[in-house]
Write a structure and sequence with these properties.
- The chain has 175 residues and is mainly alpha-helical.
- It folds into 2 domains: 2-117, Alpha Horseshoe (Serine Threonine Protein Phosphatase 5, Tetratricopeptide repeat), CATH 1.25.40; 133-175, no CATH class.
- The chain has helices at 2-16, 20-34, 40-56, 62-78, 83-100, 103-117, 122-131, 156-159; strands spanning 134-142, 167-174.
Length: 175
């Protein structure tokens, strides 16, 4: 596990430096080492990260990335991963379909993901809307106080920066 973590960290370091070509083999090695263990969620997250990096290569390794991303998405579903982790992997699957030229499938996937996570992750929703060809006009949080406490709603504009207990709104228009 320690060796897998070392390769994983080295891969992240290379990717953050902009050297994705060096990061991919390190991530692949970490994936191979982690595959010997029993940590399904982290294995799936690493596989998704490898797929994402494969899409960032020049030229992108789309078939390999798609294989890794689809397997990661499947593994994330039955592991203890969050909805956001699963949606994030699916975002990159949609991107892979886009890079392959399957624009219809990419668009369908973006719509499915948005419908799934719109209430859970407004930032990921905004990113998906951008990828689907929308221009995000505004993100905001609304209705901090339920009807029972509506007398306190006057203070909502002053609490907007906290994003605690709010309903999120992402306003977008088709570009």
């Amino acid at each position: 596990m320690a060796r897998a973590s070392a390769y994983w960290n080295a891969s992240n370091f290379e990717a953050q430096r902009g050297s994705v070509a060096n990061a991919v083999p390190l991530a692949a090695r970490a994936l191979a080492l982690l595959g010997e263990g029993q940590d399904a969620r982290n294995l799936a997250r690493l596989r998704a990260n490898l797929g994402r990096m494969q899409l960032e290569l020049d030229p992108p390794e789309v078939p390999e990335a798609l294989r890794n991303l689809e397997q990661a998405a499947e593994e994330l579903v039955w592991s203890s991963a969050s909805i956001a982790d699963i949606a994030d992997a699916n975002v990159y699957i949609a991107r892979a379909h886009y890079l392959e030229g399957d624009l219809v499938r990419a668009d369908e996937m973006c719509a499915e993901i948005i419908a799934t996570i719109k209430d859970e992750s407004p930032l990921l929703t905004a990113e998906l809307l951008r990828q689907a060809g929308f221009q995000v006009l505004r993100t905001d949080s609304l209705f901090f106080f339920p009807r029972l406490l509506k007398g306190l709603r006057f203070s909502e504009p002053f609490l907007g920066w906290t994003r605690l207990g709010a309903q999120y709104l992402v306003l977008a228009a088709r570009s």
